[in-house]
Each structure stands twice: as C-alpha cells, then as structure tokens.
Amino acid sequence: MGTWETIDAAGTPARQYVAGAETRGMPGVVLLHAWWGLDPDVTAYADRLAAAGFAVAAPDLVAGKVATTVEQAEELSAGADTAMADAAALAAVDGLAARLGPDARLGSIGFSFGAAWSIWCAAERGRIAASVVYYGTVLGGSLARASAPVLGHFAASDPYETEEGVAAFEAALRAAGREVTIHRYPDTGHWFAEPSRDAYRPEPAELAFTRTVDFLENNLGSTG
After folding, report:
1. Domains of the chain, with CATH numbers?
2. Nearest to residue 149, comparing CAs of 117, 166, 174, 116?
C-alpha cells in the first residue's frame, strides 16, 4: 500500500499518492488519472506498479474532487484548472526524479483525461523516457518536443476515441519521429481497464497491464 503526501503545484498545495520503495536509481512512473479524479482505481493501479518494482507518484489534477458518474466527471473535467493540473503533474515528475536520483529513468502513464498529461510531461521534462496512454490521445506541438517512445491501449468500440482519432494520433507521433506501438482490444469500450466501471473487462485489462510493465522495463531498465 502507498501513502498520501502534499506537493507544491506552483504555490498551490496538491495531494499525491506515492507507492514503491523509492530506492535511488530505480525506475519511476508518474501516473495521471482519468476524469473521475484520483480514485481507488488509480491508487490500486499504482500499488500494482509498485509491486512490479517501480516507484510511483500519482498527482491529483482536479483539486481533491472525485466523480462517480459520467455527468459528474464531465463537469469536473470541464472545470479543471489546467494551470494547476500542469503544475501538479510537473511537481510529481520533479519530486520523483529528485528522490530517485540522476541515474533513474522515469515513465509516464495517463488514463483518458490524463493521457494528454502523460504525453505533455515528456515534452516538458526530458527525464521521461517512456509514455503510456490508455484510451486517450492528444495532437499538437508537444508530440514533436519529445523523443520518448509511446505505448497506447485503445478500445475496439469507443465514442470518445474513434478509430480515426487514434490513427491520427499514431500518424502524428510517427511524423514527429517517435516510436509508437498501438494496441486495440477486441470487445472492449472506454474504461475497460478500470475495475470500478461497468465497461471493465478483466482479461484485456490484465493484458494491457502486462504489456505496460514490459514496455516500461524495456525503456526504463529492469526493476529487478
């Protein structure tokens, strides 16, 4: 189990969940939550990453709020303070980098709403050596401002992330010279990897997690 701490998001206190031993030189991961907020699905995923050998920091991007319905989540994400979220994400990266030392390599993982920050953090901080996104895309200049390889997990049927949108995301990454691997999971929808959601599908969720750990180990170094 991890612990909670307070970080400084450009002058605003923000909470953060941390898990893992944080031994100097070990690989670390910054975990960015979906539009529901920093909920138990996120902390459980962080604990699983810690058990796999990573030090994990999961910052709160929405000032402590947690949604349980789509309507609440839509309102929460629409009203998010982007500047504060940016600051919290970077504070998580910088804090984890400081604790693990200059030789440690870091990765980022973002779920849906948090996927944009997973990609953006790599553009803002060169310490991010690998980025993972779950059913979330982003386009724009941040893609060309980083070199970290990208792993993407996407649902077969998803009104939020269409096949065309995912293809555009992949093409933009390749045009920017980025290495990218995209997996699409049959018979799944958005949120298939989040256990508290009706869309949760255990087998593809487990496969996505295994692929994520392998990808991080290959790009950040062994956790052993």
Report:
1. 3-220 (3.40.50.1820)
2. 174
State how far the Cα of 138 lies from the Cα of 116, in Å rounded to an integer: 5
Dump pLDDT digits (tens) for 89-129: 999 999 999 999 999 999 999 999 999 999 999 999 999 99
Asked if residue 221 lies in contact with residue 107, where contact means CB atoms within 8 angstroms, the answer is no
DSSP string, 148-186: --EEEEEEEE-SSS-HHHHHHHHHHHHHTT--EEEEEEE
Give the three-state DSSP class for 17. strand
> Per-residue pLDDT tens for 40-97?
999 999 999 999 999 999 999 999 999 999 999 999 999 999 999 999 999 999 999 9
Cβ atoms within 10 Å of 93's Cβ, excluding its own = 23
Question: What is the C-alpha separation between 128 and 106, in angstroms, rounded?
Answer: 5
Which residue type sits at 132? Answer: V
What pLDDT sits at residue 62? 95
**Length of the chain, please?**
224
Instruction: Single out the residue of 175, 190, 20 nearest to residue 111, CA to CA.
Output: 190
Q: What is the pLDDT of residue 223?
A: 58
Tell me what percent of the chain is helix, strand and coil, each rounded to the nearest 5.
40, 25, 35
Within 10 Å of residue 36's Cβ, how many Cβ atoms?
Answer: 27
Question: Would you state the structure tokens that stand for residue 221, as one six-digit string?
Answer: 């170094």
Report whether pLDDT(167) > 80: yes
